[in-house]
Structures
1.
Amino acid sequence: MPCSRLTVIAYCLIISRILYALAVREGFLSSELVAKIDAFLKRLKRFGYMTQIITTAELMNDAARVLFKQVCLTNHFLHYLLPPIRPRVNQQHRGHIYQLPTYCSLCYICTS
């Protein structure tokens, strides 16, 4: 089989299952387990199943980016949880268009 077909099969069978498990267990992964998954992904490249090396950090970042883009759509059921859209004061492009909540680090303690 040519390399491109092996890559498609590897994505369909292996990477999709890793992504499915990462979505559920992302916060519970130890650094040792992440290293094992990364070593497995490197072996996929070494044996010719993949054309480039993929890391678990890349997979998790891509999954989070896709989820955020989907939630930003107005017809998504989680869209109402997003903060309001911030006014366009400056024209600097940031990661998103939503207004972050303000936080005051001063603590006022009543001493009465």
2.
Amino acid sequence: MVEDSFDKWNKQKKHIDKKNIKTIFKQREIYWASIGKNIGFEQNGKNQNFTRPILVFRKFSKNSFLGIPLTTTIKNDDFHFCFNFLEDKQSCASLSQIRLFDSKRLHKKIGKISINDFEDLKNKLNKLLFPPKNGGIPDNQAML
């Protein structure tokens, strides 16, 4: 029987859960993190470790944080925030994919978003999550 990616992720997730080493992390840092094999339109990790770059948006404790997955696919819309990262390569934060992560998922720090870009990202996320009462998500992006 061929092992599918959900089964492989389940094995990897069990290994991550047993991890005793905690990573010390801070807001604005970017890490490779195991985010897994997910469902539908949820962002997936890549490779055998199911990893993807994650921006630490808000630290809640030494064990958990609100993180935003990054992608190299450039999308100029309300749901993404693009910025230069790593040798002037552009990355986009997938704002609609923001979620809680445990620090056990973190592998390796790969950088940090600039203070100015982080402030711009916070403003864009704030507009996405709390649209003006007279506005909101544009009609062409509204959900039915």
3.
Amino acid sequence: MLHEKEYFDGTSVKQDKRISAVKRGTALASNAVISSKHSKTDLLVELMAHMHDDEIKHVAMSDRMICREAHLKMDGLGNEDDRKQDDVYRVSQAARTLGRLLLASRRTVSMPNLSPTDVLEPHRFDLVVEVTKHMSFNKETPASNLGKTIGNLLTNACRSKYCLALREGDSKAKEDALAFQKLIEREWNDRVNRVALKRMQTEKRSKIPTIPLTADLQIFLRLSNQNY
């Protein structure tokens, strides 16, 4: 028996099976990218096992720069016995945040093949700032600390881009990485962090309970005296 969803959107059982097959293929492609471009793949495989299987995971784990950042962070955790309970979770969240930023940037400029290396170019700095604002505090339910987190992740990504370019002898990529990092150092605090702080302060003020009216206090005292 077909579900109501299948009637509603016109998706047949065969189509559902094809969609599932595509998803499995995407996951296999992500694993192939990791296996072909990274050493110590067991660290990234372990990380992938902790990540929710969705579009963000596939984007993050199919990009070599995000994978490199994730691998470095996983490597820095040391042996499994030395890790704290949520260490791997934090690495997973960092990778997913970069994946979300990349997806949002792609959709904003309608460039589905845009990579983090392409994003970290000086002429796209304003794009990254605006996308970060929408992800963090320019929405109904703000995540005000996210902007600062993204700034830190982008700084590390710039360093990874520079190191990759250094190994590959790509002078243009090195210049772009340094320039983008300089823009973060000079403008991110003013354009993102301070705006987020202002938003947090405004929300905090709006939640401060109002002082009761004198008439309300008089009624409260009179009722209290009657109870005694």
